[in-house]
Every structure is written in structure tokens, then in C-alpha cells.
Description:
By secondary structure, this protein is α/β, with parallel strands linked by helices. The chain folds into two domains: 11-266 and 473-490, Aldehyde Dehydrogenase, Chain A, domain 1, CATH 3.40.605.10; 270-458, 3-Layer(aba) Sandwich (Aldehyde Dehydrogenase, Chain A, domain 2), CATH 3.40.309.
Amino acid sequence: xxxxxxxxxxxxxxxxxxxxxxxxxxxxxxxxxxxxxxxxxxxxxxxxxxxxxxxxxxxxxxxxxxxxxxxxxxxxxxxxxxxxxxxxxxxxxxxxxxxxxxxxxxxxxxxxxxxxxxxxxxxxxxxxxxxxxxxxxxxxxxxxxxxxxxxxxxxxxxxxxxxxxxxxxxxxxxxxxxxxxxxxxxxxxxxxxxxxxxxxxxxxxxxxxxxxxxxxxxxxxxxxxxxxxxxxxxxxxxxxxxxxxxxxxxxxxxxxxxxxxxxxxxxxxxxxxxxxxxxxxxxxxxxxxxxxxxxxxxxxxxxxxxxxxxxxxxxxxxxxxxxxxxxxxxxxxxxxxxxxxxxxxxxxxxxxxxxxxxxxxxxxxxxxxxxxxxxxxxxxxxxxxxxxxxxxxxxxxxxxxxxxxxxxxxxxxxxxxxxxxxxxxxxxxxxxxxxxxxxxxxxxxxxxxxxxxxxxxxxxxxxxxxxxxxxxxxxxxxxxxxxxxxxxxxxxxxx
Length: 495
């Protein structure tokens, strides 16, 4: 099978394709365990060269000093180039990630491109802010005329950015870094997950097509050592990372000696609150549907299902029935609704937590093993536990798989307390017939976002990020660019 972009065997540095000094590394389809390509592996000196290129492009190149509209012109071309490749990018993600086609086409490809369009739209509106005129006594001539002056706040690019991204939504995560950073005038070194390198390397082709100035976007690959260099090198001004809590903490420690800005979008253990008056069938369908997205490999997925005890038996029954209709398999089949986990190591982690849940006394409602007839690929059942208490490991730790924990509650106050009883604070949702009460509860939940009755807002226009150990900073929304900008106050006299 000819999978798009899997023939790329070079990294992209300083506007040119460069043969990898670290050799190549096999990339496999997690649904079939077949090798889909041999991706380039950059050496430490090549990552160093990429940093040098980004530094030179920022310090002496045209990109940071261009007008916002000039940079937007390049990014408009990037949008057009990506839209022309949507089908190919989707085909790559199906093979590289194993994600079901429906989720792939919408969430993995179309939505990120739409977010970029919104970024460009907002960037073109980004203007300096003029503060009110100040009138102050003249400290050198107290009896004379007062001073009058003003202040303008201008926004300037932060500098050289290292972007390190995860495997679960690779194209989305890469574009979520590239779009605002480049629009802000920064230069970047992008390092993707070793599991999903092609979703990043394809941007080299885009850079060439749109004529992006050399050094503005560099794409390297590699492992832990290469990632550490991107976090520690003093030529890098900012590190942005999407991934696990543990790696995020390590990146903060690595960046600390050089006092870099660190932007982190990390893990979650998000709660869905199902009140006593909720539509049980709708809530159960939503819970199961969310758990199945990318086989549960999503930081914002609601894996703690807090259900009012008066409707919990009905919810459990309906959720189990709906889980039985989830078709697990190779996402090359368009009828498949849940694909595999990314690697055997991730499946082993999921199975470890399933065993912990059983040992702790939680009741397996459905799943708990591997789907029958799928001997190849890293497949797992969608698993639901009932009779879970919030202190269990399955309720506290991010499993990153399709494992849902049903926890009963009796009052709204108890539901909010359980939802907040987590080291994470990324997302959540509330299902209720009383929207006003649901909204009031949402304001009490310490997470970066809460969806009320499914929500109808657009992520492009809303800041996304976490409280507590779910991260630092925000992505998306009208102020997205500001994560990649300095604010400078310019004071001046008038008259």
C-alpha cells in the first residue's frame, strides 16, 4: 500500500532537506504491526544546526520584522497547500496513528486547518494598544506645568521556539504550534514523536511550496537526547510541549537553568457529571462515544463518569449496551469506530490499570480484555468499571486508553468535590436538564474547559489549557498568539 509522505527520508533544516546522520527508524502501523516507512533520525549535531538556523533566521532574517499582514500572506499559502493535501494527510494518520476515519477526517485534519484559518484572521487584527494619556507633576519643577505623556504597548515575537509534540493527534498538535508561533514572528524547531514522524516531516514540503524563508521552520527527529538539547540550549527562548505530565515536568526542569519560557499542554483525568435530571440515554451514548475517540488516547477525554446514584443503574446498563456496538479494528475499514493503541507498551499500560481496577474491587461492566479475532495490532476493548471510588488508581491516573470509571454521587456539591479531587484540571462536561444549574456548577470546577450538554462552541475561538498539573498556558482562542509574544511598553512625552 502506498501511504502518503512515508517516503520522506530526510530532515528539514535551514530551508533544505538534509540526510539524517542518525540513520533511520522503522515506523509501524499500530493496527497491522507492518512497517509503513523508515523515518530519518537526526543526530545531536544536526539538531544543533537546526537551532543555529532558527537563531540566525530570527536575529538576522526578514521573518520577525515583517508586518503581520506579510506573514499572514505566507500562512494563507500554507492553508491552501494543506487543504489541497487533506485526503493524503488523513490517509497518513490512519496508517501512522491507527485512528478511525471519521475522527481522522474531522478532528485530526479538518479542524486543525480551520484553527489555522482562525489564527490568521485574529492575527490580522492584532494591533498595538495605546493606553490612556497620563498627566503627572513634573518632579524637577513642582511649581511648573505638569507633564503629559502616553504609553503604547507593542507585541513582539518571543524568539526561537522549540516545539515538541505527541503521537495521538500529531498533525493537529504540530499545526497548533506552527500556526501561532510563525504568525507571531517566531522561528521554530519542530520535533515530533518517534511514533508519528511523518505528520511533521510533511511540513518541509509545505515550506518549500510556499517559499517560507530559510530557517523559519526546521523539522528534526530523534529521541530523548535530541529533545533535551531543544530544552536546554541557551539559543532557544521558549519551549512548547504537548504530552504527558511526567515529560512536562522534566522539560520544566531542563529549561530552568536558562530561564526559558515553558508552555505545556499536559494530561488530564477529566470528569463527566451526569445529574439526576439528565437524559440518561444521551449521556451514556456521549460517554461511550468520547471514550472510543482515538482509543481513549486523548488528554481531554472524560474518563471519570460521575453519575447520580438515582440513575446510575440505568446509565450502566445503557452504556454497556452502547459499548457493544463499538466496532474495533483496522481504521483502513471506514466502518471501524475505534482503532488500536499506538504501541504494545501502551496496551500493556492499559491492561495494567485494568488489573489494578479489578484488584481494587471495581466491577467490570464491559470489556476488560482484548477484542476477539484481532491477533495483529495493539487492540484493546473499551472497558467500563462501575463501583469505582475516586481514590482508586484507575480514577486518579491518566491511563490514556478507553477505560471509563463510573463513580456514584448524591448531591451536586459532592459531584463538584469529586470532579475537583484530581491532580489534573484540563476538561470536563456536565449533562443536565437544568442548564442554569449546570452552568453554575461549571464555574466551580477547576478545569480549563467545561462542556455543558455537549457544548456548541468552536474550539478555534476558545482558549484551551489546564489547571494544576494539566499544564501552563493556553492554545487556541483570540489570544493564542500572545503565548508567543513579548509585550513591550513604550513611554513617550506629548507636547
